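WARN retry 2 of 3 for item q-0093 after timeout on previous attempt; input resubmitted unchanged.
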Amino acid sequence: MLYALHVYAERVSVFNLFRYQTFRSGAACLTSLVICFWLGPRVIRWLKSVQRGGQPIRSDGPERHILEKKGTPTMGGVLILAAMTGSTLLWADLRSGYVWAVLFCTLGYGAVGFVDDYLKLSRRNTRGVSARGKLVVQLAVGLITAGWIAHLTGGTLGTALAVPVFKGVLLQLGLLFPVFGMIVLVGSSNAVNLTDGLDGLATVPTIIVASVFALIAYLVGNRVFADYLQLNHIPDVGELAVFCAAIVGAGLGFLWFNAPPAAVFMGDTGSLALGGALGAVAVATKHEIVLVIAGGLFVVETVSVIVQVFWFKRTGRRVFLMAPLHHHFEKKGWAEPTIVIRFWIVSMILALVSLATLKIR
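OK item q-0093 returned
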């Protein structure tokens, strides 16, 4: 929206700043942060007033959760979505179709999470939308988004999978690309959702991965940098740097209230939406494999659940004391801050490794 002010740069020189994605990305981050700080107390008071019992706690989870987390409101993801969406609409160039495609995916998954959270609260148990119903909607939103992005990119690049490190290597998926993109989106969304089990555990890794993809989007969208780094240049995708910066600001603002002991949980409203957002940006920038590296923490958490379920069904025994993996360490006696901070460190290391793939060719 404010991008349009650059046309008045000849009259008011300061408006020339609105041409630059770097300036607008920084502004989007700060705007999201301010919105969160301003809306946070109001949203939390409202959530407490309508959720008298707070988020339902799993009876089979770590025992201390029943005592320490009981009564904490959920659905704090509405705060994140309001901040990042408002900031993106304010600072991004809305002529870019990528912005709308990614927002569609983010808000679509956020809506699924909102309904799921609402049903859990209204029924006062941990069962919301059925797993099948949730998956069907996620697949539909993911397929539409992936097809939309492929259409925006166009040409052979639109339906190809880029392989990091190996320059110029593109695996042509053709008509299967929307299906592949859908899997990336659904997988990313549910991976963040599974990781969101401790105060701040999913928030900071999301901020880290969003920061990585803000840089990737900017580089891929800039022909000079893309050619220098031998990346696949995609016009207009640089506007997603503004979107990712808005996620970073919203995440930092939410973390202020989600830091231990959390005053609010993001719930499925936030975790499904954020995971979908990261997946959509990865598909748009042709860095789906890099997302697996940067978001490796989310991948490991998801794999721990898959392994646990598979092995238990086959043998009746558990590999981990409890899945996802962070609950395993809780059962082993690790303090919550220890688990959270160590997982943050792992996420930072993986982010650095993923950035290294941009230069190694």
